[in-house]
Amino acid sequence: MSNRQPNAFHRAFPAREFFRGSARSVVFWSFINGLLLAFLLILFFLILDLLDHRGQISVQGVERVQQLQEILTSPEPEAPAEATEPSEEPAEPKADTDEVAAAEEKPAPEPEPKAAPATEKSAATPDRLVLSDTGILPSVWWTHSKYHLGIMKGVYQRVPLLQQNQSALFTLILVALVVASIRVLIRWRCRLRSLKVSHHISTTLRNMIHRQALRLGPGDLSGKETDQAFHLFIQDVGTVQNGVFHWVYGLTRHTVTLAILLLIAVSIDWRLTLQCIIPLAAAWYFLMQHRKDYDLQHARTLVTIDTELSLLAENLRSTRLVRGYGMENPEHEQFQKHLAKYTENLEKLKRVEGWGHRIARGLAVFCSCLVVFLVGYKVLVNPDSLPLSAAVLVVGIFGFFYLPVNGLHELFRVREESTVAASSIYRYLNLIPEVGQAVGAKFLEPMSTALQFENVTYSLTPSSPPILKGFDLKIPAGTTTALVSLEKLAPRAVSFLVPRFIEPRSGRVLIDGEDTAWVTLESLRAEAIFVSGNDPCLTGTVKDNIRCGDERYSLQEVIAASKESHAHQFIQGLPQGYETVLGQHGEDLTTGECFRLGLARALLRKPALMIIEEPEGPLDEDTKTLLEDAYSRIFQNRTVLVIPSRITTLRRVDQVVVIHEGKVEAVDCQSNLLKKSALYRHWEYTRFNQFRHSQDTPIEQR
């Protein structure tokens, strides 16, 4: 079955979220950033053109000279209504520039003619005009001639700093730095907004996982579901968060950047852009296909190398046989054969990697040369339609294409990983808890008669082998019972059935004749409390750990319960007593201290039925002594089920239930079972014999 659900990422972050809240802000500012990129490229073109022409421009033809003079003429402010007489003389071009032009055309200088009236202007206009030190005038003239737009003309006329070379260069560089700084600030803002969106998504998913874990976790016999929830909570949610961040931050940014670059290239020369785009797109497609083949071949070669290396390592384990039977020569030949194959595969891997890098670099060089050739040929054939500065800008744009295109490619790869992680999360969230409260459930009174299991069958999944099969047991109220079995999960399954952490596949669990499936979960779990010595402490103060956030219990009641479980003494020794913080960032307790704290937590509620799972870890002698005294109080006037880890607990209880193959094998006190039940004797020996720890300890560590 596939690990990927096609709509999993869309379910975590629907497309409509792009138009809400912080994501909408990212889209807006990414668009603004794209416009600033276009403005930055225009400034780059103006700087290049200024350095190329150095403010020199030469125009031939009366009509073109008139157009240039119109650009040179500064816009006059609107005259008052009373002023009806025109000015005596129109503005003249720079005298030194006209004298240079006249000196180039005639051998001897002639006096400059006075400007003619407006009606005779066309007759006095020269047919050639050469100007120098005009700032960005060549760029303005080229854009005005090509696009017939008055924007550049208006800017040039209204900004005197752009009308001389040095001031224009300084102004353009300064404005470019300001625009670049604004773009950096906008990208930083977009990044923060994207982080906010991804954090909101991750918080939502973690809340959902937490709620689902509260529903599914209590019935986790083996601990696998808890481990799965932990992995989902930490790893998979982190992957989805990273995917959402890159999706929000990168999709609009890369798309707008690509569109801006393409729009500017098309506006400069759409035919040239098309001629360059087609081979570049083909090269990119070929490179992507080659990368897939390369990754596949690379993975196969690595598998072969690992196989050969394993065969070489296996020879090290058979040295006794080789030396014992005199097989040195055949073994050496075999070793050399595998070593040669290993070396050959290593060389093959190097060749694969080398060809992959060569093809990628070759394609990059070919595409670069092709773009430069096409642009250079256009400049040589028709320099008026594509000046050198515009050509350099076009080449730079096509080189810059790689960033947004590769960014989009990586973006979809990250989304694919996030989709797999989101699929795992939603599969877990779609699980239906087995335990639910029935409609019309009744309130359960404290247990007074008996706890009974009627023909109970239970398995982890409907298709897995049963842990309990036809399990029948009746436990009188006020007695203490230990549950033991060679199958580790069987006693725990019996214990989990009582507070309905799990649901039987068939059969019933009765308390005083009432089926627990038809009583409220709140009343059932208030009267049947499970205490495990393997559970960690809650994050919070000692008082909050015992009260579990229930403000109805006073500090005096908390102290009384702690004294009954012999937890009060070690609590008083903590830095702040009952106000000491426990958990990841607080004090650490030993296994025995955590267990006694759990007993106090249960005793505070005074349940009629307690289920105790003793800790599996070793306990010090003082803790064992204190537990013995605590048990003498806990076991009085209360029904207790115990999953024991100490032999003294087995000797203390009224009866021991031996479970085998899902059924009750024997029920009696510990001393009688030692005499009558071979199965119990075997179980007790494997758990409590004095040599059990040394069996698993290597000799060198003893």
From TrEMBL:
The transmembrane residues are 26-48, 168-186, 244-266, 272-288, 359-380, 386-405
**What are the EC numbers?**
3.6.3.-
List the membrane topology term(s): Multi-pass membrane protein
Return the Low complexity bias intervals. Answer: 73-84, 115-125
- Signal peptide coordinates: none
Xref: InterPro entries: ABC1_TM_dom, ABC1_TM_sf, ABC_transporter-like_ATP-bd, P-loop_NTPase, Type_1_exporter
Q: Which residues form the ABC transmembrane type-1 domain?
A: 161-417
Q: Using the UniProt annotation, give all residue ranges assigned to the region (Disordered).
A: 73-125
Which domain of life, per UniProt? Answer: Bacteria
Q: Which UniProt keywords apply?
A: ATP-binding, Hydrolase, Membrane, Nucleotide-binding, Transmembrane, Transmembrane helix
Q: What is its main location?
A: membrane
- Entry's Gene3D superfamilies? ABC transporter type 1, transmembrane domain, P-loop containing nucleotide triphosphate hydrolases
* Compositional bias annotation for Basic and acidic residues: 91-113
Location within or outside the cell: Cell membrane
Q: Where is the ABC transporter domain?
A: 451-686
Q: Provide one Gene Ontology cellular component.
A: plasma membrane
Query: Which enzyme type, at the first EC level?
Result: hydrolase
Q: Please give one Gene Ontology molecular function term for this protein.
A: ATP hydrolysis activity
| Protein known as | Multidrug export ATP-binding/permease protein
